[in-house]
């Protein structure tokens, strides 16, 4: 089995939920569990971010009960889409969602389930303008079929790329065990990079970033310190990161007529 990463990049204004990620670099979403059939998809997501941004997420999901405006990523004319917040803290949400597939354009999990069948394993992650799907697939032909169907359905406001990962390390990565990097520390690290904390000279201090994220300065500093310690340990043990074997040229995935 090989790991393949399908990344969809959104332009601002295409999707209201993705706009929230684009406008707020401290917001991050990652699946805890996800399942799909030819008729529906259900999942659990962990969201972390500033309090006021998560409140905006709550507001959006209260009235987004169908999906008919996400260009190229939803069935037509209407796909039922239900959300339920199972756990809520000021900077975290655990969200259950369920959607049925309609006619027309389908979601990546639906397309993957159609081509892979039983045994499909996948993960999803959202940050910034990227919605990333990681799938375990055993042959390039199947990758090509999935890529072609998704790519042909996307509007001009979305772009698709796919990468082949040398080893499927993401399935054993941080967040699933006690020694991993907790989501709130990962979000703090991502925000620090986004706001130029690690640039020379620094564009923003921890205090300035904490003000932007509406997180106490001491809390953000603690999360950064713990995240940096974890990264150092991972580097020393030579287990940091995931090696990308190559970015696949879409031309290589073209299926013969």
Automatic annotation (TrEMBL):
Claim: Cell membrane is one of the keywords in the record: no
Record-annotated HTH bat-type domain positions: 183-231
UniProt keyword list: Transcription, Transcription regulation
HVO-2928 N-terminal domain ranges (all copies): 3-171
One Pfam family cited in the UniProt record for this chain: HVO_2928_N
Keyword Lipid metabolism found: no
Listed transmembrane segments: none
Top-rank taxon: Archaea
Name used for this protein in its record: Transcription regulator
Organism this protein belongs to: Haloferax elongans ATCC BAA-1513
